[in-house]
Amino acid sequence: MSKSLLWSVSALLLGGAAACGAPAEEGASLLQDDPVKQGLTSENGLSAINGLSAINGLVASNGLMTSNGLSTINGLSTINGLMTSNGLMTSNGGRSTVEYLAKCALANGDYLDKADNTGVMRRYYGRLGIGTSWKTGACDSSCQQKVSACMMAHMNSTGNKVPIYINGDPNKMPSVGISEAYQAGSDAHIQEGVFFGNMLSQNPPQAWYVKGDGFKASIPGRLGASTSNPYKAWSGYRPDTSAFFDGVADGLCTARYLPDNEHFEYIDCGKSDAPYGQFNNTWQNVLVTYVNSNYNGTVVQNWTPRTLDFQAEATGRKTNTRTDVWTTATGIEFKNTVDLYSNGVLNLSENNGSKRLCVGNGSHIVVTKNSGEPFSLTSLKINDEYNLNNNRMATISGYSKGSTTKKTETVYLNGIVPKTLNWDGLLKVEIRAPKDACVCIDDVNVKT
After folding, report:
1. Is 39 left (phi over 0), alpha (psi -120 to 50) or beta?
2. pLDDT in tens, 238-259
3. 75-108: buried (b, 16+ CB within 10 Å) or exposed (e) per residue?
């Protein structure tokens, strides 16, 4: 997989309000008003039953534009681009779809005025600006893919609003840009997934997702949790291996490092239909979303101290193929990744009767609460898997609720090293191995 530094491009997200005497606005803004230098803060909540489901426009033989009064050939502000007499503008659900179309396509500060079928003028505000040409002119294939990815990223088949954070390739979508969520003040630290396809004029429509790094929780109405959403898991072979991946971003998308040179974003996704084949279907315009698991802020913490007892599918499991291994202990989820070329790195091992969770070659262990609420990490033991005392350095990072900075500790792997941290209010912890060594943790103490 290709990984190279991807420079970030700034984007400013500002709220907008209708002027006195302006046309009626359909609903309230779903985007937060906080200034954001890179990336965008948003909320999903576009119901899958409004112009985007099998019963209202998105079926196996036609896309969102077909029979919904929508055209990609003409601008949204024109009569033929978005009709008033039929289709989306004739129902509350359809107008909600138009609201998201405008948010995705138009620039921040811009807006679309459109009459509905009763003659009432309505105003829809832009935010992400990834299809600005569509306001007055045609939306070409690239524009269609970007807007489609954005619409999918905002969908929730329950209609509920869940905070999300969005990143896009700044070379293709500079109005979105990239950064880590905490840098923009977002608590959406878990990389949820990547969305791509063409739901506008592709025939049949193409709508796909792959799950991101560290995402396991099932959020109602989001990817993998609802069969009513039009997007489906993207599956196929990586062209450089014989491995088959089903809905996994790390296996099917091209990654580039963020400026911290640790985390990465996905800039396109594709697949091969056969082992060691060629990419035969690559989507160049993708959007990456982040969430805070499924936490809704209602859980009251009692901060009970717990020493975790790791449980897994098999003790001492080894693999020659890159894979994610999940472990759950007392409501805390651990995800560790075995690198594709690690050739037998131990994932969960026994050491003098104590279970250890291990990861190698620059990969990392992700620790979250399975319901998304904050937790405390008080202490753990960390060491090189084979106790080589090789002076390699591992990194522990903690992401706290409401913080625009992250906690960081570096540990030299000289034998078994106990670390007392006492980090409170955490939403995610990462334990990152050196690029040329393996790191293990055990005796993890948390408060939940």
Report:
1. left
2. 877 777 888 888 889 998 888 7
3. bbeeeebbbbeebbbbeebbbbbbbbbbbbbbbb
Amino acid identity of residue 85, one-letter, is: S
309, 334 in Cβ contact below 8 A?
no
How many Cβ atoms are within 10 Å of 273's Cβ, its own excluded? 12
Q: Look at the alpha carbons of 249, 253, 258, 260 in this order and tell me if their dihedral is positive or negative.
A: positive
CB-count exposure of residue 266 (10 Å: 0-12, 13-18, 19+)? buried
> Residues 378-406: pLDDT tens digits?
998 888 876 666 778 899 999 998 888 99
Q: What is the 3-state secondary structure (H, E, C) of 155-204?
A: ECCCCCCEEEEEEECCCCCCCCCCCCHHHHCCCCCEEEEEEEEECCCCCC
pTM: 0.80
Query: Nearest-CA neighbor of 26 among 98, 118, 134, 126?
Result: 98
For residue 121, what are the β-bridge partners?
115
300 SS3 class:
coil
The token pair at 51 is: 């112009």
Task: Find out whether 73 and 200 touch, Cβ atoms under 8 Å.
Answer: no
